[in-house]
Every structure is written in structure tokens, then in C-alpha cells.
Amino acid sequence: MSEKTKRRETGEPHYRPDFVDDLDATLRHAWACLARGVKDRRSPFHTPTIATLGTDGRPRMRTVVLRAVDTGARSLRFHTDQRGLKSEEIAADPRVAVHVYDARGKFQLRAEGMAQLHAGDALAQAAWDGSRMMSRACYATQPAPGTAIAAAGGFVLPEDEAAIVAGAANFSAVTITIAEIETLYLDHAGHRRARFRLDPDDHQAHWLVP
Ligand SMILES: Cc1cc2nc3c(=O)[nH]c(=O)nc-3n(C[C@H](O)[C@H](O)[C@H](O)COP(=O)(O)O)c2cc1C
User: Fold this and answer.
1) Which residues form the Pyridoxamine 5'-phosphate oxidase Alr4036 family FMN-binding domain (predicted)?
2) 3-class SS string, the chain
3) Is any atom of ligand 1 closer than 6 Å to the C-beta of 65?
4) Using a 6 Å cutoff on CB, does residue 91 contact ligand 1?
5) Is 12:2 a contact under the CB 8 Å cutoff?
6) pLDDT of 4 above 80
7) Which has fewest Cβ within 10 Å: 120, 191, 200, 206?
8) pLDDT digits (tens, 9 = 90+) for 15-71
9) How far is it, in rounded angstroms, from Cα 114 to Cα 201?
């Protein structure tokens, strides 16, 4: 029996999480979802979509793995190959957008912020040191990601640990400092949409018509 049917039969009131009518709690929920996404591989927040602006001005999106969340610094981190297109796009224009939809939680998160590429600095080194060997291997692929190849398998993966370690030169950590978060909670008893401006000197929170 579904939860919905069970509630109908027992006369239990419709479930609404506590945060839905509370702006501060909604923002805390958004950050909690992101933080959980780092640790929980099955959470939809583990693999957010990141949009950049292409150097031709077109929007471009792709999935990444969320590696770290710092609520105090309002930042997220993911890892990428410096040779990839998104690195070039972020270097040219650091404005990015983030999107996650959690169907089970009935919660959409949209965020906007500024990305920063870290390569060869202390943050990148710590991120590399904290990565598993399996994840590191991607950065040693030859030729570079996005290169057109004649056959589907026309690329080479590193064959030993030394080759994997050499891929460190291509590794970068990208941090995104979030400026704005918009949330949408779906509920037949009334959707809830909110926007948060995260400027530490001018924090703003508003409900919006869904
Ligand atoms: C589940 C999943 C996780 C991914 N994680 C990453 C990631 O953490 N970093 C990354 O650069 N690409 C990741 N990718 C690949 C990107 O979505 C994308 O295809 C690739 O990075 C090329 O993007 P670009 O040409 O915009 O640089 C992931 C793809 C999937 C499907």
C-alpha cells in the first residue's frame, strides 16, 4: 500500500515537511541537501547540472560530481580536466548556474554563482590528494577530452600508477561561490517557491509565486 493510500485510509493529515512555510528553514534544507549530496552517491544532489556560458555565448550544461560543500563560505566544489571545454568557458566567463531536481524530495534547487578554477595551487593539491585512484585515472586520458576521434575507442587510458599520477597536471578543482539560490517545493496543497540572495552584507529572502 502506498504512503498516500495509507494516509487516506487512516485519516492521517497530508504530510508537509516543516521547512516549507519557513524561509530560513527552506534555505537550511537547501544547504543540507547539497551537503548530503557530497556523501550520498544515491542522492540527486550528488550529481548536479552545471551550466556555463560558451565562448560563443550559448548556454552549456553538463553533469558533475559534487565533491564538497562549504555552507559558511557559500561554496561548492567539483573536479574537472583543465583540457575540457568547461574549463575554457569558466576561464573566459566565471558566471555559472547549478540545477538539481530531487523527485523523491519534490524539491528543485537552482543556484547562480561565480566559478573559480584551481590548478596547481594548494586547494587543487588537497583535492587531488583526497581523490581515489579510480577517479584520478580520468585526468590522464589521451588525447584530451572532447577531441574528435576516428573510432569510438580511439583514446588511451593510463596503464599504470605512474601514468595516472602524471594526469595530475590536467586536474583542476572548481569552486563555485553561490550568490543566489532559488528553491521550489512541489505539493498539491500549494507549491512553495523562494529566492535567497546570499550576499553576507545584504542577505535577502523572499517567497515567490510558484
Ligand atoms: C554522472 C556523471 C558524473 C560526471 N561527473 C563529472 C565531473 O565531476 N567532472 C567533469 O568534468 N565531468 C563529469 N562528467 C562528464 C560531464 O558531464 C561532461 O560530459 C564532460 O565533463 C565534458 O564536458 P565539457 O565539454 O563541458 O567540459 C560526469 C558525467 C556524468 C554522467
Assistant:
1) 34-118
2) CCHHHHHHHHCCCCCCCHHHHCHHHHHHHHHHHHHHHHHCCCCHHHCCEEEEECCCCCEEEEECCCCEEECCCCEEEEEEECCCHHHHHHHHCCEEEEEEEECCCCEEEEEEEEEEEECCCHHHHHHHHCCCHHHHHHHHCECCCCCCCCCCCCCECCCCHHHHHHHHHHEEEEEEEEEEEEEEECCCCCCEEEEEECCCCCCEEEEECC
3) yes
4) no
5) no
6) no
7) 200
8) 899 999 999 999 999 999 999 999 999 999 999 999 999 999 999 999 999 999 999
9) 17
Residue to probe by mutation, ligand 1, list 64, 66, 99, most atoms within 8 Å of CB = 64
Q: Whose CA is nearest to atom 14 of ligand 1?
A: 64
Going by alpha carbons, the residue nearest to atom 22 of ligand 1 is: 84
